[in-house]
Amino acid sequence: MEFKAQNIAEFLNGTIEGDENVSVNNVSKIEDGKAGTLAFLANPKYERYIYETKASIVLVNTSFKPEQDVKTTLIRVEDPYQAFASLLDLYEQAKKMKTGIEQPSFMDDSSKVGEDIFFGAFAYLGKNSTLGNNVKIYPQVYIGSDVTVGNNTIIYAGAKIYDGSVIGNNCIIHAGAVIGSDGFGFAPTPDGAYKKIPQVGNVILEDDVEVGANTTIDCSTMGSTIIRQGTKLDNLIQVAHNCEIGENTVIAALVGIAGSTKIGKNCMFGGQVGIAGHLTIGDNVKIGAMAGVSNDIKSDRTVLGAPAMDHDKALKTYVVYRRLPQLRDQVNDLQKEVKELKSKLGKD
Question: What's the pTM?
Answer without folding.
Answer: 0.83
